[in-house]
From TrEMBL:
This is Gluconate transporter. One of its GO terms (molecular function) is gluconate transmembrane transporter activity. It comes from Nocardioides mangrovicus. InterPro entries: Glcn_transporter. Keywords: Cell membrane, Membrane, Transmembrane, Transmembrane helix, Transport. Belongs to the GntP permease family. Pfam families: GntP_permease (PF02447).
């Protein structure tokens, strides 16, 4: 684990402070933190300020109010930003490159066509599986844009309600976005809590599958009854503008990668990270292969290997030139700049909270209230999500606040805290969430219909995620 990602509040001295009596400074930093979060919310919601600027301003406000020396405040913020971007930022970039080649090579379409070729029976379940696979390397928004034409084409062919197929796909993308690295939110929480990526990934997959089932195909059947729209009322004309022929195939100047190569490329980093986690649990550190597995399973190395593999399987192997591949890599970075910098500013905000003593004060409250880091993290993530509409801001803020309380937990329990926070960050999506409006417009729904379908689905994910992580907490 990169030592820069270790929160400053993870040492024994901080743990002792958490168990000391409440002080006037604790009251001060809690009040300042609440005001700072309210300031960030107001800047984002009321003034429509970019999240990076809002988090930076909020960090300076909290730092001054918490009593950090003015000469040290900028350094505190910069340290937090650098620690997160030094690791998480690289992973976001590599994930975006992989996702871009997956989409533009036709690999994603190959997966979709293969799974949808099984007939109409069980179509919602296969749609959830498609979204689950595609959602591993892709941001939610990118995956949604890719899948919308496919969803609508499937709705038109099967004459099924749009929500019956749409909700399972949305659930698959959303769960992966909140639960599974290398998505930016989970990675930021892993960094803040000093958790292990491989263990978090393994437990995240365990929690993700039943969560997608309940929030996707199961809830989709009820959602289709509540909002019985079909292809004629959804899609925003995407099918007409899409370049697919009647069979759903893309008209490309290059050939598609095969289904097997596509799956192997997408899952390569996941397999490498899982092998690393398994080696840590079951293999002796003295084994000759142990250091090699640790190296190959490092998230940066695993994703780099996948990108290099994709350069062939999704690039030169399907007819692209190296210049075209390089251009696509460059294009992949444009949509992620904003999200990456928000994650960095969130790391700076976290560091200011830690250095100012907010984490210690919150830890005292949690200890007094007998709240576990898992439950406290979930509650804070829900509150910040509802207030700001940003799952990423919710994850970064909640993980930074509970870091001192979680610093003495085992690697398994740390991973579960990350997953609980990720689940809470998805709850109650409403009008201040960009994803809410994307879903509303793509499916041609009213605000009320979107609340009854999408918002309920996101809340189901949050609640099921909390229940599953709590069960695993007791069992592991």
């Amino acid at each position: 684990m990169n030592p820069l990602l270790a929160p400053l509040a993870s040492d024994d001295d901080t743990l002792k402070l958490i168990h000391e009596p409440w002080s006037g400074h604790d009251t001060q930093v809690v009040v300042v933190t609440v005001l700072g979060i309210a300031l960030i919310v107001a800047l984002i919601v009321a003034l429509k300020m970019h999240g990076f600027l809002a988090l930076t301003i909020g960090s300076l406000f909290v730092g001054i109010g918490s009593g950090i020396k003015l000469t040290d405040l900028a350094l505190s913020f910069e340290t937090g930003v650098g620690a997160v971007l030094g690791n998480v930022g690289v992973l976001i970039v590599l994930g975006a490159m992989l996702g871009k080649l997956l989409a533009d090579s036709g690999g994603a379409d190959e997966i979709v066509d293969k799974i949808l070729s099984g007939g109409r029976g069980g179509l919602p379940w296969r749609m959830a599986a498609v979204a689950f696979i595609i959602g591993i390397p892709m941001f939610f928004e990118i995956g949604l844009v890719l899948l919308i034409p496919v969803i609508m084409l499937a709705v038109r062919r099967s004459k099924a309600p749009a929500m019956l197929l749409g909700i399972p796909a949305l659930a698959g993308l959303s769960v992966l976005h909140g639960f599974i690295p290398p998505h930016p939110g989970p990675l930021a929480a892993i960094g803040n809590l000093h958790a292990d990526v491989g263990i978090t990934l393994a437990l995240g997959l365990v929690c993700a599958v039943p969560t997608v089932i309940l929030a996707g195909p199961v809830w989709g059947r009820f959602a289709a009854r509540l909002v019985p729209i079909g292809a004629e009322g959804a899609g925003g004309g995407l099918l007409a503008a899409d370049d697919r022929d009647a069979d759903g195939a893309d008209e490309r100047s290059t050939r598609r990668p095969t289904f097997g190569l596509t799956i192997a490329t997408i899952l390569a980093p996941v397999v490498l990270m899982l092998i690393r986690a398994a080696a840590e649990i079951w293999m002796s550190e003295k084994a000759w292969i142990y250091p090699l597995l640790q190296f190959l399973g490092e998230p940066i190395v695993a994703l780099l290997i996948a990108v290099l593999l994709a350069t062939v399987t999704f690039g030169t192997g399907v007819g692209m030139s190296l210049d075209q591949v390089t251009t696509k890599f460059a294009d992949s970075l444009k949509p992620i700049v904003s999200a990456t910098m928000i994650v960095g500013a969130g790391g700076g905000f976290k560091q200011v909270l830690v250095d100012g003593g907010t984490g210690v004060a919150i830890g005292k409250v949690a200890v007094a209230a007998s709240l576990s880091a898992l439950v406290l993290g979930w509650i804070i993530a829900v509150l910040v999500r509802v207030a700001t509409g940003s799952a990423t801001v919710a994850i970064v803020t909640a993980s930074g606040i509970v870091a001192p309380l979680a610093s003495d937990l085992s690697a398994t329990h740390l991973a579960l805290v990350v997953l609980a926070i990720g689940a809470g960050s998805l709850a109650l999506s409403h009008v201040n969430d960009a994803g809410f409006w994307l879903v509303k417009e793509y499916f041609g729904m009213s605000v009320g219909q979107t609340l009854k379908t999408w918002t309920v689905m996101e809340t189901i994910i949050a609640v099921v995620g909390l229940v599953l992580t709590q069960v695993l907490w007791l069992l592991l």
